[in-house]
Structure formats: C-alpha cells, structure tokens
Amino acid sequence: MSRSQYRHHALILLIIVGFLITAACEQKSINQIKADPSRYSHKEVAITGQVVQSMSLLGRGAYEVDDGTGRLWVISHAGVPRKGARVIVKGTIHDAFNLETIVRLPQPATSVLVMMESEHRAK
Question: Engineering a disulfide at 49: which of 24, 62, 67, 114 sits with its beta carbon 3.0 to 4.6 angstroms away?
Fold first, then answer.
C-alpha cells in the first residue's frame, strides 16, 4: 500500500470514528427531550445550560439545568456543580424515575423525567 493510500484510509477511518462518537451522544435541547421522552429513554444525550438548583450529600446529589427551552433534573454520583454554573452534561434519560431513592426533593419533583449523569463539565 502506498503512502497516499495509507493516509486516505486513515482519514476515512478517522471520519467514521468521529461520526460514531458524535452519534453516540447527541446534543439535545431539554424541550426536545421532554417533547418525546420515549425517543431518548435509556439513551445517552448531552445538554448544555445553567444550574438553577443544586443539592448534594456525601458526593451524591441532584441539580436542575435550564437551557432556555426547559428544565431537567440531573442525578449525579460524582458531586454536583454549584448553582449558577454553566455546564455541559452527558447522561442517560429516564422517565418516571423515583428520585426519593437517591436524594430528598420537594414532593412535586419526586417522579419526573431525569438524566442520570455519566459526566459533567463546567463551561
């Protein structure tokens, strides 16, 4: 195989891998997720927004993210960002999840659409 063919194949492989990584975790708005929760249920997606509520205990907790289109509770097992922080969050969407098993929240928020965080990053 010539050097140019090798580069061509490597470039194609890189493009395919990049596409698979991007497709595996789509950036979505909270409105898109809430409009069709079954489409995203148990799938990993990413959201970007501002933390409007945050609570933690012993490294676990929950925080609510507002992206301008809606709000979504995020459950974390690795600490939570502070209120007011801008974050990018990746996680799995769960519908009708009982949050009482993880963290104590006000009664109206105990059974809602939530994201189980796999990672978050402050912007």
Answer: 67
